Amino acid sequence: MSPVRRFALTVVQGALSLGAALHPLDGWAREAAPGEAGSLASGPTPLAYFLRSKGPAAEPVLHLGWTLAFICSLVCVIIAVMLLIAMFRRRKKEDHRALRSGGGLSFVYVGSIVSTVALFGIAIYMLSVLAEVADPPKEPALTVTVTAYDWWWKVDYGDGPSHFATANELHIPVGVPVLVVLKSADVIHAFWVPELSGKTQTIPGSVNRQWIQADRPGIFRGQCTQYCGVQHAHMAFEVYAQPQADYDRWYAAQQRDAPAPTSAQGIRGRKLFEERCAGCHAVAGSKSAGVQAPDLTHVLSRRLLAAGTVVNTPENLMDWIQHAQEIKPGTLMPDMKLSPAEAGDVSAYLATLR
Ligand code: HEC
Ligand SMILES: [Cu+2]
Fold this sequence. Notes:
This protein folds into three domains: 78 residues, no CATH class; 114 residues, Sandwich (Immunoglobulin-like), CATH 2.60.40.420; 87 residues, Sandwich (Immunoglobulin-like), CATH 2.60.40. 39% of the residues lie in helices and 17% in strands. A hairpin with a 7-residue loop joins strand 6 and strand 7. Helix 2 runs antiparallel to helix 4 and helix 6 packs across helix 8. Heme C binds next to helix 6 and helix 7.
């Protein structure tokens, strides 16, 4: 491809992705209506929403991003214009003589001083944004612990008897700051909910903190933004910002242990689960207490499976269990070889985990 065509293509692609980010297609993303965030009806929110903010922890970061984008674009334009002038201006004899005797240096001095001052200004602005978003405006209403795993997110609420765990889903009450304590179980990952906060790394052996706050109800998509292995791209999660009453209802439901299955099939399914799945997965209120994989006590209450890889439907659920390696190659869950009868039993048991 000729350089000119490649350049034109790059410009067109850039314009298209910027356009898509600013004007999301209808149905591709939307905000939840009040009270709706808790239901599973809402569609996915694309990550392209990094160009707007929905909470005070993201606001200063967004302004910084736009300012830097503007300054960088301006620098590009200035350099391009100067380059064009230099290319098309015909040199005169005197110019050569002037250059050789050190002429034109004043331009270099001025240029260096201007860019030094600009860079210092940007550094100070960046530090002030860091300071601004370091602490929430008031005491966090809630603390949640998020632990990153290859390639999913464990979310722990409460401690002691009120503790429960979920995966790839963070529920928060609307309008209040929530402190997210960030840990990693294996490699370095990074926690990012573009509309609610800047990026924060999760580092093995150390604990980071990031506060988030959503000013209105909605589902906000988050993503791991530190390359962490083959399934890095499928390491998403969702933040559900709910009115307090909805949040409380969700919280109370999550705290309950799984009920014992009553059907013969469900009981067989639980036994099978305890033999084949419990080494990795836990179900509160049963013998299954694995720690290396998502807690499945309320797996049916989740909208997505496998860190945002598939929508949680009964078909996708069973498909995932038997073909995880096809759906998310390299994931740390093996394909579970279940006979049709066994699959039926497991499915009946999982249907009780709502
Ligand atoms: C060797 C450990 C291991 C075994 C055994 C295992 N799993 Fe998993 N499972 C995982 C891991 C790890 C994940 C997270 C995968 C990801 O998102 O990349 C997972 C994810 C899942 C999920 C998706 C949960 C969510 O919220 O996204 C379901 C459902 C599931 N497993 C069911 C089962 C069932 C049922 C069995 C037994 C038939 C089973 N698993 C056996 C490790 C295991
Ligand atoms: Cu990651």
